[in-house]
Amino acid sequence: MINSLKILILSIISTLILTGCGTLTPSGSIHDPDGDGDSKGSSSFASKANYGGQKTFVFDPKLHAWAAYDSSGDLINTGRASGGGHFCPDVGRSCKTVVGNFRVLWKKGEDCVSGIYPLETNGGSPMPHCMFFHPKGYAVHGSHQRIIDRNESHGCIRVTPGAAKWLHQNFMSIGTKVIVRPYS
Q: Is residue 124 one of the residues assigned to a domain?
């Protein structure tokens, strides 16, 4: 048990060092993974938060934005996001993203696709750099559709492809905390 704990701690420390948790630019501004100058949410999220010393991804469906906090509680990145819609006509019900505190359970790379949507083809919709945080298939993933200020997914949290790649490669590991704030 003690050896397993040591290995876990060393793994976490190595991951923190290799992923460069401090993604603030030298000027102290928020890192922009897309290079598009879009820092949606940067003024809406607190610059410091207490998440118990854990890296944390936060999605706010009211703001249509996400934030990434390092293990020190410093805001290091933000961007546009779209969550699940209030009603999805193809399934005839609400598709809101599940709300609460979760952990990344598994990840897939650029070739990640939906196993369900679109319904007419029994899946196949691209979900590049997906990071699943709920056993019922909720994930944070890239979307090639324009991310607008409206929640319209089937429940996943859509972010830009560049943001998804950055989150997948540099921030979110198995076990990273994911917080989905309430819709109202």
A: yes
On whether the CB atoms of residues 65 and 44 are closer than 8 A, the answer is: yes
CATH of residue 146's domain is: 2.40.440.10
8 Å CB contact between 157 and 64: no
Its domain, for residue 35, covers: 23-180
For the chain, residues with pLDDT lower than 50 are 4-30, 35-37
Residue at 150 is within a domain = yes
Q: Is residue 31 part of a domain?
A: yes
pLDDT tens digits for range 25-76: 333 344 555 544 455 666 789 999 999 999 999 999 999 999 999 999 999 9
How is residue 71 written in tokens?
A: 């293990």
- Cβ neighbours, 10 Å, residue 74: 15
